[in-house]
Write a structure and sequence with these properties.
The chain is of the alpha/beta class. The model has no long low-confidence stretch (mean pLDDT 95). Bound molecules: NADP nicotinamide-adenine-dinucleotide phosphate. GO terms for molecular function: steroid Delta-isomerase activity.
């Protein structure tokens, strides 16, 4: 059966990779790309993916988002303020993610997948960095969403995102946080190509054992399907 997927923040770099991959899986997924501006629509037209401008995470209220999401099987939230100031970071990365998760429940959508950030939960990791406010937004969005017992959430937490070709591989998600703890000492690479994150989202959509799980993501040597499949 085809799963109907809403991708929010679809014009973003991870989500563009995701939508491109989903466009090749039309027997498995029917995708609607939620974007802010119809001038961004031509790339989705070219992929044969429908797009909608009905959801602006800041401007749209809960009821409007819920009404728009009715009938979907899963919602992927890959939006982010992209460093455009504290107000937008809190309105999109924190309140926006939580508001959409509330809308997912109201609309009775079965699954909600959020793209967050590596080690959002670990203050020591980010407190003394220029990204502190951003990580505060990510941490509390992740906490609120993951404590929601009525929501089938999956939170993907990639490391530094790179615009590189996909490798098809990631580190074992069960090992990632301990590896990330050692980065300063042992110079581990905690980056990942955006395209590999997109593939990990697809494998998470395919795999219900990822429900109510955090999935930290950095580059590695394990096939993405296998790594996500054993979660
Ligand atoms: N950069 C990193 O190294 C890194 C690491 C870990 C996690 N992350 C997180 O991973 C996620 C995806 O990253 P990315 O690089 O793909 O992000 P991106 O390219 O900056 O895309 C973010 C998308 O969010 C959309 N957006 C912003 N405000 C919105 C609003 N009010 N309503 C609807 N959509 C809105 C933007 O729309 P427009 O295109 O219209 O502006 C954009 O398409 C983000 O949450 C980011 O914080 C990033």
């Amino acid at each position: 059966m085809v799963s109907k997927i809403a991708v929010i923040g679809a014009n973003g770099k991870v989500a563009t990779q995701l939508v491109q991959k989903l466009a090749n899986l039309k027997t498995e997924f029917e995708t609607i790309a939620f974007i802010r501006d119809s001038s961004q629509g031509s790339k989705f037209d070219q992929l044969g993916i429908k797009y909608s401008t009905k959801i602006d995470i800041i401007e749209s209220n809960l009821e409007k988002i819920a009404n728009t999401l009715k009938g979907f099987d899963a919602v992927v939230f890959s939006a982010g303020a992209g460093g455009k100031g504290l107000d937008k970071t809190f309105a999109v990365d924190l309140d926006g993610a939580v508001k959409v998760s509330e809308a997912v429940k109201l609309a009775k959508v079965k699954r909600f997948l959020l793209v967050s950030a590596l080690k959002s939960q670990d203050r020591e990791f980010w407190w003394n960095t220029p990204l502190r406010s951003y990580f505060i937004a990510k941490k509390y969005a992740d906490e609120i969403i993951s404590r929601d017992e009525d929501l089938n959430w999956t939170i993907l937490q990639p490391g530094h995102l790179k615009d590189e070709n996909d490798t098809g591989k990631i580190e074992d998600p069960l090992r990632v946080n301990s590896i990330a703890n050692k980065i300063s000492k042992e110079n581990h690479d905690i980056s990942i190509p955006r395209s590999d994150v997109a593939q990990a989202i697809i494998e998470s959509l395919r795999n219900e054992s990822t429900i109510k799980k955090f999935i930290p993501l950095i580059r590695g040597e394990i096939d993405i399907k296998e790594a996500i499949g054993k979660i």
